[in-house]
Write the structure tokens for this entry.
Amino acid sequence: MAEAESIIGTPDVEGAEPEQDPQAEGVRGDEKAPKGSRKIVALFTVAAVAYALDLISKMIVVAKLEHHEPIEIIGDWLRFEAIRNAGAAFGMGQAFTVIFTCIAAAVIVVIVRLARKLYSLPWAIALGLLLGGALGNLTDRLFRAPGVFEGHVVDFIAPKNFAVFNLADSAIVCGGILIVILSFKGLDPDGTVHKD
């Protein structure tokens, strides 16, 4: 239990169990418990970095790589190749672009609402990755051709025998994997640890 608390920085009041008082701001030994606002800042910082990296990479790809030959990075194992994707991962669901746009917008709203109860740094990082990735692909859906809510996402990372993806997709997948790990460990976004 103590090890799990040190991983997530569970806030508590001296002598209180974290499950009983997740939002208290007290001390544990000589260490002050982190405040919830710091976790919100972490979430939006991670989201902003993920979003900026995705946006900048797509601007470079559109300017320098689109309508050009792919660039081999590691032989034929990894290359950069600009494509426009109307669907989801692996090019599936290309007829449902508007639905994917609405789903991305809903994910963003849910994450922003959840941020008010966020007291765990690992959860802040995971949700920040999801938020940044969702914002990156939503920007494409809203502002790229062929039109609003139907825009095609710019993908460019092309591993051999795998789908072409972008940095927003990578952030979403990494955030999702981290959420699964945190859930299996019993760590909640509010900083509590539960046992099933």
